[in-house]
Amino acid sequence: VNAHLVGKYKILELQSAVKDLLQVYYKPEKPVKIPAYSPQIIEFSAQLTRNRLIQDFLPQLTEMKAISLDGLFNSTSKNLSAKLDAPRIVYAGTAIDNVTLDINSLDSALYYSALINKVKMSSIELTNTVFSGKVAQNIVNMGLWIKDKQDKEQYHLGANMEAKNGLFEFSLLQDGLMLNYDKWDVAPNNTLKFGSAGLLANNFILSNKGQELRIASKDSILNSPLDVAFKNFRIETLSKMIMSDSLDVGGGINGQTTLSRLESSPVFVADLVVDKFYFGKDTVGNVNIKVNNERENTYNANVSITENGNNLVLSGDFINPPQGDAALDFTLDIAPLTMKTVQAFSMGNLKDAKGNLEGQLKIKGSPSKPQIRGDLNFRKAEFNVAMLNALFKAKDEQIRFDPTGISFPKFELEDSRGNFAQVSGSIKTQTYTDFEFDLGIAMDNFEVLNSTQADNDLFYGKMFLGTDLQIGGNLDKPVVDGTIKVLDSTDFTMVMPNNDPGMADRKGVVEFVDKRDTATANALARLDSMTVTKLTGIDVDLNLQTDKDAKFKILLDAGSQDALNIQGEAELNAGVDASGKITMSGTFTVERGSYSFSFGPVSRDFKFQKGSTITWNGDPLDAQLNITAVYTLKAPTLELVAPQLGTQNANLYKQKIPFDVLLKISDQLFQPQLNFDIDLNANNAIVSQDVISKVDNALTTLRDNPSDLNKQVFSLIVLGRFMSANPFESLSGGGGTEALVRNSVSSFLSSQLNRLASDLITGVELDFNLTSADDYSTGTAQTRTDLNIGVSKMLLNDRLKVNIGSNFEVEGNSRPGEAANNIAGDIQLDYQLSQDGRYFARFYRKNQYQVTLQGQFVETGIGFIITMDYNRFKEIFMRSKRLKEYYNTGSKKFRKRFDVERMEQDSAYRDSVRTVIRDSLMLHSPEYRKRMEEQEKEQQRRQQVDSTANSKGKNNAPKQLDTIKTTAIKNEDEERAYHAN
To answer: What's the count of helices (H) and strands (E) in the chain, helices before strands?
Structure first.
C-alpha cells in the first residue's frame, strides 16, 4: 500500500471528525458521544497493489490491477470528497472490470455513486451497472441501473430506506421500477419494515401486463403471517438480468408461499406451479413444487415435472433434528424423463437427443452418506455430443444403484455405424463424493468423432478407435491402463492457431484495429491445456497405436492453407503423472503424406518420403520432426550451368529433365524449421552423361551458398525453372516466363528512373512508370512497352497541386483508333479547401485508350474529397480549431482529461476527484444541476458585459487568448463556484 496525506490533521482525531460529519446526514436514534477534536483538513491518496501479503490472505486472487483512492476532507466546512477506482479484479474465477466509487458531501446531503462496467463468472455476465443516491435526514435514497451491452437501460430500481422507531422502512418509488425493459406499476404507500423486533409488509405489490408479485402481512402487527403470491410472474423477468448464452431459463410462476411464526421457529408452506418451464432452447414442461415444514424438524416435499412427455415425481421428507444427523426419506419415480429434457440441462453439450429414461430410486440415509437403491433404464435413447458431433445410442441399457455404489452390467453404446463400445464393472461409493473405480472399456471400430470445423475450430474430422482399457483407483488417484488404437477409417484434422495468417483481407478506406486478439489467445490457451490436465494424482499408462491407413492433417496456417497430411504407423506410450503433466514417448513412422506449401497464388504439394519420423520424448507438444518431403518437376538446366558452358552448344541444356526439390522439416512439431535442397533425378533424365555431370557440379556449388540455393528453390517452385545469374534474362526462351521477367524489369527500371530524376531535376516532381506486357488484342502475340511520364508542382503555399502527364509508346504497334498523346495528355488539379488538408477539390482531365470502343476516350470531371485521421469517433465532427484545442498538451483540459496532474503533484488529486463527483452530481442531482445552470448563465452574462465594454474602446481591444490561458481562467471560475457552494 502506498499512501500520501497532505494537510493539517491528527491521526488519532480523524475518526471522531469523520463520525461527526456522518451524523449530519444520518443520526442514530440513540445519540453517540463523540470525543472533541481539532479542525481536520486533509488531502489524501492511496494505491493498493497485488503483493505477497494480499496473495497469502486471498489465495484465490489471480489478478488485481492497482486500486487507487483519492480525496479530501475538511471537518470545519463539513466537506468530504473521495473517489475509489479498481480497474480489474479476478477472484475465484469471477472477473470484475472498471469499478468506480464516488462520494461527495454537498449542503446537508451525502451523495454516492458506484459504477461497475462488467462482472463475468463463467458464462454469466452482468454489464453496465450503476448504484447511486444520497443520504440526508436519516433517509437513504438509492437507485440501481443495469444496462445491456448496447448501453440500453434494461433494469432500474428506485427506493428509499428510512430508520424510524427502531426499524428500517424500505419502500419502492412508484415511477422507479423497470424489469427487463418493461416499466412496472408499484402500489402506493408500499413498505417493508424490518429489524430486530420483526418483519411487517404492507401493500408491497408489483404488476405489469397481467404479471403480479404481492408481498403482504395478514395483519398490521409485526411478525404476523406473511404471504408471497405470484400471478403469471415470468422467471425471465429477473433471469435476463444475468447475460448468458448458455443459462437461458424461463416460465410463468403461479401460486403462493406463506411464512408464519416469524418471531420463533418460522414455518413455511409453498404451493407453486411453473408453467411451460424452459431451460436453454428446450421446453421441459410444467414444474409443480409443494414444500412445507408444518411438522416439527421435518421438511416435506413433492416436486413433479409433467407435460412434454415427462412424468417425474420426487416426494418424501428431509428430517433435521436439533441434535444428531439429518435423515433422507425420498422416492424418485421416473416414468419417464425424456432425453430431450436431459439435453436441455446439458448446457449445450448434447444435441439431437431422443428416447427416454425410466426407473425408480429410493433415497435414504443421511446427506453425508446417502443410500440409493434402484435402477435407471435407457429406453431407445440417443444423444449427440455437440463438440464431437458423434451420435451414441443406448437402446435398452441399465445402470444399477445399491448401498455399495453404482454398477454397469455390460452397458453398451452403439455408434452411427452399428459398432459398439462396452462399459462393465462398478463404481464403489458410500458418500457419492468419494469414488473407487473398477471399470473396463472395450471398443471395436467405434466412431468417437464425426465433426466439422463448425462444431470445433481446434480439431475435427472422423475418428474410429479400438480400445481395451482398465480404470481403477479412486478420485484422488485414478489409474488408467490399456491400449488405444486409431483405426484405418480415421480422417482427423487439427488446426494450429496462427498470429500471422498467410492471407489477409485488403485494407479499406477506414481501418478499424482490434488490439485485443482474444480468439488467438483463447485458442493458444486451449492448446496449451493439452499438456496439463486438471486432474492431479492421476496415473495413466496407455499404449497408443495407429493404423497406416489412418489419415491425420495438421493445418499450420488457416489463411494460406499450409498443412501437413500424414499417414503412418505409431507405437507410442502416453502417460499422466501425479502432478497432472501429460507425457508421450515413441515414434510415428511415415507411410505416406504431403506438405501443402503456398506462396501467394502458387500452391505446391511436397510428398513425404517413406520412413520419415516424428519422435516424442516427453512433452506431447514438443515432438521432434525428421521428415523429408519431395516436390518433383521437369525444368531446363541452361540457366543453372551457364557459367560452365563457355562456347559449347547451349541447346543440349534446354531439354527439360526431372528434379526433386527437397523440403526437410525438422525441430519441434508446432515450430518447424524448413530447409531446402535440389536433387537431380538422374535415373529418369534422358540426357548425356556430360549434361548430368555439369548439373551435379552446379548443384554441389549451389549447396555451399544457402542464399543462391533458396533463390533457385523459389524459382523452381514458383516459375518452374532455374534462374540465371541475370534475373532479367531468360536463356531458355518461353513467352510466359519472358513476360513475367519483362514485367519485373519494368518495375526495376521505373524505380531507377525516378531516383535519377530526383537527383538531377529540382523544383518539380517527376514520376516515371515503364510497363511491358504481351498484347493479344490483335489475335497474335505482340510485345508492348509504354512509358508514362508525370510532372507535379505545388503552388499557392502548397494548397494547389498541379499534375501533368502522358503515356508514350516505346515498343509495339499502335492500336486501332489510338492517337498519339502530347505531353499534357492528363491534367489533374488538387486544391485544399482547408489549411489542414481535410477538404479539397479535384479537377481532372484523363486521356486514355478504350479497347471496347477501339478509340481514344477523354474524361473530364470534378470531385470533392474528405480525408481525416481520428482516434475517437467524435473527432470526425470536430472543427480543426476545436480538435487542436482538444489535443493541446499544455492546456489544463488536456492535463485533467489524461490525469497529467496526477503524475506531477499530489495536490492535483483534488481536482480530478471533484471533476468525477461533479459529473455524477450533474447526472443524478436535479438540485445541483439547477444551481450549476444558474451559475453558467451568470458567467455568460458577465462575459457579454465585458465584451461590450471592450468593443467601445479604440485601443483597448484585448488580444485573443490562447488555449492554455482560456482553460486556466475557466478552471479558476469553476474553482470559485465550487467554494461558493
So the answer is: 15, 48
Q: Which amino acid is at 206?
A: L
Backbone phi, then psi, for 183, in 5-degree steps? -80, 135
Rounded to an integer, what distance in angstroms lies between the CA atom of residue 329 and that of residue 314? 10
Q: Specify the DSSP class assigned to residue 243.
A: B
Compute CA distances 649 → 289, 654, 697, 724, whole Å: 100, 10, 18, 17
Average pLDDT along the chain: 79
Dmax (CA) for the chain in angstroms is 121
Our measurement of the distance from residue 608's CA atom to the centroid of its chain's CA atoms, rounded to an integer in Å, reads 38
DSSP 3-state of 695: helix
Interatomic CA distance for residues 468 and 483, integer angstroms: 5
Q: Which helix (H) or strand (E) holds 694?
A: helix 689-703
Reading the block at residue 303, the C-alpha cell is 416436486
Gap between the Cα atoms of 93 and 34, Å rounded: 43
Q: What is the pTM of this model?
A: 0.61
User: Domain-by-domain residue ranges, the chain?
Assistant: 2-137, 635-660+680-733, 738-866, 873-980
**Both ends of the chain: CA-CA distance in Å?**
34
Residue 496 and residue 520: Cα distance in Å, rounded? 10
pLDDT for 730-766, tens place per residue? 555 544 444 444 444 444 445 555 555 555 555 667 6
Q: Read off the C-alpha cell for 586.
A: 515413441
Nearest to 213 by CA among 227, 228, 201: 228
| Residue of 739, 737, 756, 733 lying closest to 811 (CA atoms) | 739
Instruction: Of 461-475, 487-501, 530-544, 813-827, give the lowest mean pLDDT range.
Output: 813-827
Per the model's pLDDT, the better-predicted residue between 780 and 706 turns out to be 706
Strands 551-557 and 491-495: parallel
Q: Cα–chain-centroid distance for residue 877? A: 30
> What nine digits make up the cell of 619?
512433452
- Give me the count of residues in the chain: 981
Take residue 484 and report the three cell numbers written for it.
488405444
**How does residue 362 score in pLDDT terms, banded at 50, 70 and 90?**
very high
For the ranges 69-83, 188-202, 650-664, 824-838, the lowest mean pLDDT is seen at: 824-838
Report how far residue 722's alpha carbon sits from residue 248's, in angstroms, rounded to the nearest whole number. 64
Alpha carbon distance 219, 647 (integer Å):
121
Is the model's pLDDT at 418 over the cut of 50? Answer: yes
Name the amino acid, one letter, at 103: I
d(CA 5, CA 44) in angstroms, rounded, equals 5
Are 390 and 419 a contacting pair, CB within 8 Å?
A: no
pLDDT digits over 74-86, tens only? 988 889 999 999 9
Confidence of residue 891 (pLDDT cuts 50, 70, 90): low
Q: For residue 92, count other CB atoms closer than 10 A to its CB.
A: 10
Of 582, 679, 569, nearest in space to 613 by CA: 569
374 and 360 Cβ atoms separated by less than 8 Å: yes
Contact between 613 and 587 under an 8 Å Cβ cutoff? The reply is yes
Q: Enter the C-alpha cell of residue 673.
A: 524449421
Q: What is the DSSP string of 482-548?
A: EEEEE-TT-EEEEEPP-SS-SS-PPP-SS-------HHHHHHHHHHHGGGB-S--S-EEEEEEEE-T
SS3 681: coil
Instruction: Judge contact between 384 and 351, C-beta under 8 A.
Output: yes
pLDDT in tens, 300-353: 999 999 999 999 999 999 998 888 889 999 999 999 999 999 998 888 889 999
DSSP codes joined into one string, 268-308: EEEEEEEEEEEETTEEEEEEEEEEE--STTEEEEEEEEEET
pLDDT the model gives residue 758: 55
CA atoms within 13 A on the CB side of 299: 13
